[in-house]
């Protein structure tokens, strides 16, 4: 989750509870195995309501809090320890809307579900498919406050769809199987939706049910290398040994990649064995989903790097496509 909206009573009762028990927790997970990342510390902008544990990311109400008169939004930030510039700086927004305890417990739907929430997770790594699958936590369905402020209500959740991919453990949504971004069709990638039913058992044996559509966005990770689409050896014939800079040579060379363009930010395309410095690649990437599965297409045109005369009857060089950020990647070359 990277954005939350929470309705919360702000009074002596809630302060006495949530000054000791966190109303939530902001955590950064390692992309390699989705376990808790230990190389971050947590910070919250200065305010009169909340405080954060810089080590655990747990969020509490301050002992000296000042009540809110209107909804307020707070930004939580995770900073890399030791100033590691190679790590990203994640952010999350938390919006709190004040209301009375009676209003809170009377609004049954907001006891079942967050007022507003976005669930975002990375796809599983390709190497993880050979290991024993472990369910991954996507997020909770409702605020922790409901358990303590309205304890007389019993909640039961049930998945109405998506049970092949997801499962519920009390109020926690988990993955049931490894999620592969590339195996999903292009309409599902950012629109995975599960429908959850929440049944509330009230004091007088009365029941109330609510349903909510929850959108889950799966983010593509860079776990596939470029693949050469056609042959590995190309023969280009010149009708004139004289050439000029930026003139094209032969047909375009096509590579494909199952990952999105955004995930392929670290791919490189270079010329090897060009002893006379004659050529250079001009590569452009775009995405296509005409097969129902989104993928990247990289079109490389070889051009002359300078003006000159080709004096050799045969001149051989190699175009290499590579992505060093992928553990199992093998460079793809064209001669």
TrEMBL record:
Cleaved signal peptide residues: none
The record's annotation in InterPro entries points to: Cadherin-like_dom, Cadherin_CS
Q: Supply the alphabetized keyword list.
A: Calcium, Membrane
Give the UniProt record's GO annotations in the biological process aspect. homophilic cell adhesion via plasma membrane adhesion molecules
**Location, primary (coarse class):** membrane
What GO terms fall under cellular component here? plasma membrane
Recorded hits in PROSITE patterns, A to Z, give:
CADHERIN_1 (PS00232), CADHERIN_2 (PS50268)
Q: Where in the cell is it found?
A: Membrane
- Span of domain Cadherin: 154-228
Q: Which domain of life is it from?
A: Eukaryota
Q: Which GO terms describe its molecular function?
A: calcium ion binding
Protein name in UniProt: Cadherin domain-containing protein
């Amino acid at each position: 989750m990277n954005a939350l909206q929470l309705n919360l009573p702000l009074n002596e009762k809630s302060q006495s509870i949530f000054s000791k028990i966190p109303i939530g927790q902001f955590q950064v997970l390692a992309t390699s195995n989705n376990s808790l990342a230990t190389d971050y510390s947590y910070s919250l902008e200065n305010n009169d309501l909340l405080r954060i544990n810089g080590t655990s990311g747990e969020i509490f109400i301050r002992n000296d809090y000042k009540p809110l008169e209107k909804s307020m939004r707070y930004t939580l930030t995770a900073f890399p320890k030791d100033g590691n510039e190679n790590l990203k700086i994640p952010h999350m927004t938390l919006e709190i809307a004040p209301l009375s305890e009676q209003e809170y417990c009377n609004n049954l739907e907001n006891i079942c579900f967050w007022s507003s929430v976005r669930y975002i997770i990375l796809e599983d790594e390709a190497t993880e498919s050979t290991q024993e699958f472990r369910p991954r936590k996507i997020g909770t369905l409702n605020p922790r406050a409901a358990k303590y402020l309205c304890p007389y209500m019993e909640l039961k959740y049930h998945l109405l769809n998506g049970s092949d991919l997801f499962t519920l453990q009390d109020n926690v949504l988990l993955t049931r199987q490894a999620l592969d971004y590339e195996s999903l069709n292009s309409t599902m990638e950012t629109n995975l939706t599960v429908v959850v039913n929440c049944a509330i058992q009230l004091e007088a044996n009365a029941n109330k049910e609510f349903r909510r559509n929850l959108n889950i966005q799966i983010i593509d990770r860079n776990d596939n290398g470029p693949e050469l689409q056609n042959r590995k050896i190309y023969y280009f014939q010149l009708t004139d040994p004289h050439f000029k800079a930026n003139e094209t040579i032969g047909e375009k060379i096509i590579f494909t990649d199952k990952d999105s363009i955004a995930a392929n930010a670290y791919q490189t395309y270079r010329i090897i064995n060009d002893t006379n410095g004659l050529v250079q690649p001009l590569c452009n990437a775009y995405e296509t989903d005409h097969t129902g599965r989104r993928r990247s297409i990289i079109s490389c045109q070889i051009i002359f790097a300078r003006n000159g005369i080709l004096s050799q009857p045969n001149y051989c060089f190699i175009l290499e496509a590579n992505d060093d950020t992928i553990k199992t990647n093998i460079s793809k070359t064209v001669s």
